Amino acid sequence: MARIGVFTCWCGENIARNVDVQSVAEQAAHLPGVRCSRVHKYMCSDPGQKLIRDTIAAEQLDGVVIASCSPHMHLKTFRKAAEHTGLNPYLVEMANIREHCSWVHPERARATAKAVDLIRVAVAKVRHNRALEPIQVPVTRKALVIGGGVAGIQAALDIADAGVPVTLVEREPSIGGKMAGLSETFPTLDCSQCILTPRMVEVAQHPNITLYTCSEVEQVAGYVGNFQVTIRKRARYIDIDKCTGCGQCWNVCPSKKTPSEFDYGLGTRTAIYAPFPQAVPARPVIDRDACLRLTKGRCGLCVKKCQAGAIRFEDQDELVGENVGAIIVATGYQLYEIGKPGEPGRIAGYGEYGYGRYPDVISSLQFERLVSASGPTGGEIRRPSDGAIPKTVVFISCVGSRDNAKGLSYCSKICCMVNAKHTMLYKHKVHDGQAHVFYMDIRAGGKNYDEFVRRAIEQDGAHYHRGRVSKITQEDGRLIVRGVDTLAGEPLTIAADLVVLAAAMRPAAGVEELAQKVNVSYDEFGFLCESHPKLRPVETNAAGVFVCGACQGPKDIPESVTQASAAAGKVLLMFSRDRLYREPEIAHVQESACAGCFTCRRGCPYHAIDSAEIRDRQGQLVRRVARVNPGLCMGCGTCVALCLSKSIDLEGSSEQQVYAMVESLR
Amino acid sequence: MTTPASNPPAGEFEPKIVAYVCNWCTYLGADLAGTNRLEYPANVRIIRLPCTGRIDFNLIVKAFEIGADAVLVSGCHPGDCHYTSGNYHARRRWILFRELLATLGIETGRVHFAWISAAEGKKFQQVISEITSQTRDLGPYRAYREICEICEV
User: What is A587-650's CATH number, 3.30.70.20, 3.10.170.10, 3.40.50.300, 2.60.40.10?
Assistant: First the structure.
C-alpha cells in the first residue's frame, strides 16, 4: 500500500493551540508511502469529510490516516466517509493527536513532535491494513431469559408479545422472584402481589413462552444469533401436567419442619410444598432432602392422597437443549449475609447486631413477610421470639452498604425507601407503636420518592436519627440498641422490641459461574458489567447477551422493569434483521503453518477455536489444525501472543502491523 | 525531510517510552486524561492493541531494539477485561518473563506493568509521569543498544 493520504485536523483551537498543524502536515507528507497530506479546521464536519472523500477519489488513495481525536470518538465516522467513495473502511486509521497530545502537552514544540510520531505510527500501520468485509451470521429468532423475577418476567413478556418465542429459566420452583415476597411497594403502597401475580399468570399462559422452573442454565455454546443452551431441569418429583395443584399432598405431608425459603425462615413448610399460594406454575415440588420417602424410604402419604397420580419419586434431573439467538440475564439479587461466619470469599460483618443470635433481629426482606397478608403471621406484625406485637421497632440503614471496612463500598439504593415504607406499614398496623430509623443519609431520588419519605416522617411519625448503631444487646426480652445521633451530637440508646436491618443488595448466588458461561464480565462485587454505563446500559461485551435488573447493579422495581423492557427492545432490534454483521477484525489461522498444538484453544476466552481436520485426496487424515470460528471470535488476540509458530494472526492488529508501528518509532 | 522519531533536544536526556495499552481500558483512560486536560510528559508513544492478552513478549524486546528507554504494558484491572481474561494472560506472562528478561540481561526496572481503567485518567497521568521521571534518573538505555550494535557487526 503506497498511496496513503494523511488528513490532519485543527479541531478548531483544540489541536492547533498546542500543535503546529501546518508543520505536522508538511512532515507527514514525507513519511514513507504517503501520497498527500491535507489539513482542515474540522475534519469531522461535512466539508471536512468532503475533503477526505474528494481527495481519496482524486489521488486514488488506498489508505487513509486521520490525525484528529480518539478513534473511540470518530473512527466510525471517518470509515463511513471513506466507504462512500468506494474505499474499504478498514483501510482507514486514526492518529489521536488531541486527547493523547494537544490536550495534555502544552509545550508546543514537543507536542508537535509527538503528533508527527503518532501519525508516523498510524501510517506504518495502515500500510499493512487489508480490506475486510463484515462477517455475516444468521440469527435464530428465539430468546432465552435467565431469571424469572420481575425483570425477567417483563423482558420475557415484551419479547413474547412481539411474536418471538422465549424460553424463561427460573432456578426456584416458582417465578416471581423477590418481588413476589414483598408486602407493598414504594412509593404508592400498592400490593406487590396484586401487580405481579397477573403478570406471572400471563407468563404461564403465553403461547410464545416456554417456562422452565427448578431449572438452571448448565452450559452455553455458540455465538451471537446462534447460541446452543443446555438447561438442567432438576427433579421436581411431580408430573406438572397431571397435577391439578389441589393441595391434598401438602396437607398430609408429615415432614413439616423445614424453614420456608419464601418466608426467609420465619415460617416452616412441608417436604412437598408449593412455595406460596399464587406460585406459577401452581404446582408443588418435593424437597429431596426433607422428604421421608426420598431420604429414608418410608412414608408415601402424598402418593395415597394424590387422585391425579402425579407424584413421581423416580424423577431424575433432565438436560434440555435449546437454540436461541439472544440471551437476557436477569438473575437479580440476594441480601448481604449479616453476621454469618465468614466462609472464604463471602462478605459478612455486623456480628455486633446479633442477627441470627437474637430472633427479634431480622432483615428487611423478613419484615416484608411479617407485614404480608400471605406471610407466616397472616399480616399481623408479631415478633418472631414470642409472637408479641412490637411497640418499638428500630430500622437500621446501610447494613453492609457504603462501608469499606466490613461491608461493601456501594450504596444499595433501595434501602432508604424500603425503610420509609416499613415505618409506614408498621404504623398503619400498630397505631400506638413507634418506629425509629438510624440512617447515614436519606437517598430518595426518584419520582415521588422524597415526598414518600417526608410522609413517613411527618404523617406517620417515624423518628429518624442520623447516625450509626454500634451494638445491640438483649435485656429482659428487649433489644437494647446503642447508637449515636450525630445531629444532636449525643449517644442514643433505644429499648426496642424488634430490630430490622436493611442489608445491602448483592448479586444472586452463582452469578459469577453463570457470567463465565455467557462470557460476561463482572465487577469486584459480582454485578454484571454493561457495555457502557450511559450509552449501552443493557448490552454486554459478549455480543448477543444482555443484562437487566439487580444482577447489573442495585436497583428498585421501576428501574428493573425499565431496564428489562430496554433489553427486550434490544433483542427485538437484533431479531428484526435477517442476518447479523460483526466486526471482521478477528483472528485467523494460517493452516499450512499450524502445528496443531492447540495452545491457542486453551487460552481463548470465547472457545472460538475449533480443531479442523486436514485430509488428503483419498480422505486420509493428515493432521489436525486450529481453525477460528468467525461467529465466536471477538478479536482480543490472546491466541496470537500464545501461538508458538506464529501461524495465527489478528486482522487489524496483525504481527506485521504491530511490529511496523513499533519499528516506525526507531 | 522528516525529522527522526522522538527528537531529544540536544543536551538534556529525554527518554523514549513505548506504551502497549489495551483499547478498552488504558487507551480510554488516556483519552480521559486528555478530556480532563491532565498534563504529563510528552515522552510516551502509545501503541493501541485490542487487549493486553495480545502482547507478546517479543514486542517488549522489540521496543528496546528500536531504542526505547522504558516500556509500559497497561490494561484493564483484574475482572474488568473487555475480553474476560486477556489481562490475566498478560499478568501471567509478565510474572514468567520478568525472570527471563533479567536472565537475558534486560533491566527489569525499565519494564512497567499497570492496571489503568477507562475511568482512571488521573492514574494514567501519574503512571506516565512516574515512569518518565524514573527513566530520566536511570538514564538512556545504552546497554541494550550496545548489545544490538555488537549483534549487527
Answer: 3.30.70.20
Collapsed DSSP state (helix, strand, coil) of residue A540: coil
Distance CA A550, CA A335 (A): 11
Q: Comparing C-alpha atoms, which of A593, A657, A597, A606 is closest to residue A636?
A: A606
**A187: confidence class by pLDDT, cuts 50, 70, 90:** very high
Three-class DSSP category at A9: strand
Give the start-end residues of each E strand in A287-329: 318-324, 326-329
Q: Does A334-506 match A143-234+317-332+508-575 at the fold level? A: yes
What interhelical angle do B26-35 and A71-84 show, nearest 10?
Answer: 100
Does B51 reach chain A within 8 Å, measured CB to CB? yes
| Rounded Cα–Cα distance for residues A41 and A13 (Å) | 9
Q: In percent, how much of chain B has pLDDT > 70? A: 92
Cell triple for A450: 422524597
CA–CA distance, A342 with A351 (Å, rounded to integer): 11
Coil, helix or strand for B59?
Answer: helix
- The CATH architecture of the domain made up of A143-234+317-332+508-575 is 3-Layer(bba) Sandwich (3.50)
Report CB contact under 8 Å: A70, B31: yes
> Residues A557-588, buried b or exposed e (16+ Cβ, 10 A)?
bebbbbbbbbbbbbbbebbeeeebebebbbbb
Average pLDDT over residues A265-285: 94
Domains and CATH numbers, chain B: 17-152 (3.40.50)
Tens of pLDDT, residues A335-361 = 998 887 655 556 678 989 999 899 999
- CB–CB of B37 and A104 under 8 A? yes
Indicate if ipTM > 0.90.
yes
Residue of A nearest to B50 (CA): A636
A528 vs B contacts (CB less than 8 Å): none
Crossing angle of helices A21-29/A108-126, nearest 10°? Answer: 30
Alpha-carbon gap, residue A392 to A54, rounded angstroms: 79
Residue of A nearest to B60 (CA): A662
Residues of A whose CB is below 8 A from B57? 641
Contact (Cβ atoms closer than 8 angstroms) between residue A99 and residue A639:
no
Chain-chain contact of A665 with B81 (C-beta, under 8 angstroms): no
The C-alpha cell that represents A5 in the structure block: 493520504
Pick the closest to residue A480 from A398, A358, A341 (CA basis). A358
Predicted TM-score (pTM) of the model is: 0.80
Q: What is the mean pLDDT of residues A495-521?
A: 93
Is A317 strand, coil or helix? coil
> Residue A638: which of B3, B5, B54 has the nearest Cβ?
B54
The terminus-to-terminus CA distance of chain B in angstroms comes to: 28
Poorest-pLDDT segment among A248-252, A654-658, B38-42, B75-79: B75-79
Q: Where are the domains of chain A?
A: 4-126, 143-234+317-332+508-575, 248-305, 334-506, 587-650
Q: Is the peptide bond before A187 cis (omega within 30 degrees of 0)?
A: yes
What CATH class has A4-126?
Answer: alpha beta
| pLDDT reading at A285 higher than 70 | yes
Which of A71, A99, A605 is opposite residue B84, by nearest beta carbon?
A605
Reported CATH class of domain A334-506: alpha beta
Residue A160's Cβ-side half-sphere holds a number of Cα atoms within 13 Å equal to: 22
